[in-house]
Request: fold
Amino acid sequence: MLWGFGPAIVRQALNGLETALAMFLLAATLEYYVNVYRRQPDPSRRQTATLGLLLGLAVFARIDAVLFAATLGGDMLWRGRRAALRRAAIVFGVVAAVLAPWCISSQLVVGGVWPESGTATRFLSEAYASHDVPVLAHAAPTSGAPPQLLVFNLSRSMLLLGTAPAAHVFTRVAEILLQAAHLEQDAALYIIGSLVALLVLGAIFVVHRQRLTRGGSMPADFDFLYLYACLLVAAYSFVVFGHIFFSRYYYPIFFFSILVSAFAFEIFLGLVGRAAGRRRQGVALAVIGLHVLALPYMSWHRVQGGNYRFVNVVDWIAAHTPPGARIGVFNSGAIGYFSDRQVINLDGKVNPAALRALRHGGIRRYIDAQGIDYVIDHQWTLGRFLFGERGGKEGVVRVAEESELGVRGWEAYRILPAPGREPVAASPALLSRLHP
Reply:
């Protein structure tokens, strides 16, 4: 249940793709805002422009950082009142200047100022709903998102937040106990979700009950991040959806949880070292001891899974397809990044033409028009979008299964060339399958 989220979070944070860059820029912006910009009674124009530059780069790295920009801007206005209006205008003017070349080039290249990743994510989540939420498989179509899907998205959000470093020790212990009690999975999910909410509220209460001082009240400097975390969860649970991508969407909340937990643990350490009563000292020692013993073990266990699993697909592509092959993949991020083949995104997150094809049931025609030679992805995804159009697998030949690709449930298919198109070469091993 929760345990499987752990490796995904570590991989997303350290894989060198856009999540790592986006987190670095968010952290850099927060550091500059709290420790430089807000420490000045009257920030200079240079400092204000620097803040705008960092904020613009953060949004450029990942578009959902606009929520961070909005809450940071609100914090500026709340603290500075009217005097902050001019500086806020400079900050967001610089943000607009940073984003303008990207928006213009996006309009020229793909026909839209903003990326369609959010629209594609919502479309995919709704398309996968009947598979991920069994109760929706036989439900009548509705004009909007079914309530069951919204509840499912929120529950998945809470489960993922339960794997944050500060909370995962407690949620993992609760999960083990609930499994030993043979509790139904739905009930266990509600209990763990409630535990996550209580842990969050408890950490906030502890930190704000005993404010630390370090050139001011540091926890108070981060108060606007509570609103940012809530907006992020609300956006991905009720607007954008995308439960299959939550591990890469909630990384800022994990970062924030580490900040809050650091202050909370400093308070616990303070309780141990002074006359705070045996009961409080016992609780503090238990919490600290549990994390000192359990968290390093859990963290070490998370990173022992070998290579990032999609790298196995990259290795298969390198070994079994010719250099000129065009590879179509729905979940194409890491594969496209690491592969030296031309990888074409099929889920529409960075490919508006593919999204239009998915919406109108023409993805196979799109694949033929693009001259794609191989399609690789999860068998359910291929069945839903590729084979569901014609009710069969004519024109394709399966050339690899999950045991060869190294990703559970994945398959690779060779797309037989359409009439009049030159076939791409294949390795001898694949030729024996294509022409037995």
